[in-house]
Amino acid sequence: MLRSAHLFAATTLVVAIGLAACGSDTSDGAGSDPTKGPGFGDSNVDPGAVKRLFFDPPTATVTIDGTNPQSASYTLKAELGNGTVGDVVAEALQFDRPDLAKLAPGNPVVATAPGPFGGTGKIHAVYKGQEALAELRIVVKVEYVDPSADPDGVAALKGSPLAQDPKLSTLLYPYDKTVFPLGLASPLVMWNAPQANDTYRIHFDEDNYSFDGYYKVGALGQQRVEQAVWDHVTASNGGSPLNLKVARYDAAAKVAYESASQAWKIAPASMRGAIYYWTTSGGGHLSKIQPGTGGTPVQLGGGQCMGCHAVSADGNTLVAAVENASVNRSWVSFDLPGATPPATLRKDGAEFGANVAVNPNGKYVVYGGGPMHIADTFSGTPITTSGLETTPLDPGMKILTHPAFSPDGKHLAAVQSSDTWVSWQDSKLMTLDFDEATQVFSNPKGLVGSAAFPATVRAIAYPSFAPDSQQIAFHVADYATGCNATGCDANTKDVGAIWMQNASGSAPIRLDALNDSSLKAEDHNLAYEPTFNPIERGGYFWVVFTSTRDWGNKPEVSGAANNGKKRLWIAAIDKTTGATDPSHPAFFLEGQELETMNMRGFWALASCKSAAVSQGETSGGTCAAGFECCSGFCDQGKCIDVTEVACRAIGEACTETSDCCNSPSIQCVNGKCVSPVH
């Protein structure tokens, strides 16, 4: 299905067959104006007589300020087999981007763009079995002057050209070349301000949208553009780079400068799903957050202390090692319904959990501190014939730990440890095949081992399969977990980086852009515990991970790189990987508890609200914040979808008639949109 199932589903405008005034000549047309042929206005024109249908003009561009509507007009013309051309009124009319503009039928056809989105769409008209297409491009140019901004500074910043700023040339956050999905909070742009109370211009531009915002900024050097602006500029992105330019007006010197610039990529999809993570907030418990605007943590399990945990890819099952259960730190399974309460007890396994994994549909859990076992999450019954307990290990290895299922449920990744289930250095990544029907593990395969890494940073830990069930991300650190020889508390320091290896056994790749996103060298090699979103979104894989890097100059996430500064970050990974780094710079997951340790995020699918079925719909798809919507966008209390065209043209692929522009006049036959009139 296309966006016809969403709020901005186009409404086909069916109008009576007719014509605009084409003249009153009733002769045989010899020597007359070919645009005014005889009898051309007759509604009984033989369909086969129409040779060509076209719009004049074929393209138009309107420029809007994000608030005031602008219109463009198109005349629909038909050419008959004898060369006669005349104006006609469409039998059916549809615009495939009704989130951008609305059509008024007739001749001319009038397309009105109300704002605030930019982009390009096509008008589809049908007359006598022929289809005509016209393109409408909407360009948005928005200016905002904050009341705090110095008027002299605003005027100076509008001058051109500006000299390069001698005191500011780079940003602390976000990072250059970051890939952002749709539906996130407007990123907090941060820099080291040369002085307080200078006026800044924050400029965004892409193919169909530009924004200039003017603000007075304090000594810390932080500024967000308004959330509505961020939503509109990202929703308007058609694949071109989103360029950021920061300019500064030095209030003391009375001079305006160009300061810093970056270029970002906007992925055409929200990330979807929910992230489950451990936090020290309130003494230590699991929380759930759905990335997106307005997303806030939801406490799980009544706040009881849970440590190691895993969530099924379908988002229905949580398994965690729970303190003070029937056996201390035994594995316990929970149902995760979409409504309150956020987690209800399913089964106390009554066996020590250690690090756990749960298969995609939540039926089976792998657990144990050595050897590992598998059990049914509903009954709690261990399965003793799986072969997991007897998996052969390499010489020098003692146990198998840190299990993780692939999204397709057919494989298990784990780590061979040379010590305990919680602490080791020498280690090896491995995979096993899993047959859910028989609950049997087989075909153990060794992958990269510690010998491939430096002697002081070689502990392999926390594997996670990408959505393709082939790529495996893991971290390599000086110690496997946040525990080292000196302790296991908030002051414990660790260094590490995230790598990725194909299950085929190809050479592992260090994710340099993810690990070393910051321009500050002291923020490098501080990435751990990766977990992939189980589905690809917007052409990318998405990974949530823990890092002890600074978040720009936010005081709550600055200072010593120790366990106490662990927070959740997200990065995009290219779907197609080879021998080069497929990662992109990371961004901070906003909405998580800001002042407490947050770590070990697990990504799973979660319920969300689809956009309403049509523009006139008054129920369904209601929302208060963007994270509630599958698209990531909540506009005036409704979930909206701005990521797909609403319909397909004649000749394009379809799965059902409603996929076609101007259905049911145009029908889906043998996988293509066709006109039944010939």
TrEMBL record:
Residues 1-20 form the signal peptide. The keyword Signal applies. Keywords: Signal. This is TolB protein.
